[in-house]
Specification:
It is a single chain. The protein is about 80% helix and about 0% strand. It is an all-alpha fold and about 60 residues long. Helix 1 packs antiparallel against helix 2.
Length: about 60
């Protein structure tokens, strides 16, 4: 693995933060949804955001 410079590290952390924020929002919206199809779409979006976050975090290891 190559070493990240400060700007790259800062950008990566910002992307991780945004994915975590998306996950929390989609989860909240899904919890509020009544329509099962909308709930399913929001749950999928939340899971996709979580997967993206985990992939980004792996670059820090």
């Amino acid at each position: 693995m190559s070493t990240l410079n400060q700007l790259e590290l800062q950008n990566l952390r910002q992307c991780i933060y945004h994915q975590e924020n998306l996950y929390e929002k989609f989860t909240y919206y899904s919890d509020c949804a009544v329509d099962p199809q909308i709930k399913q779409i929001l749950n999928k979006a939340a899971q996709d955001a979580l997967n993206s976050k985990q992939k980004l975090v792996s670059f820090l290891e």
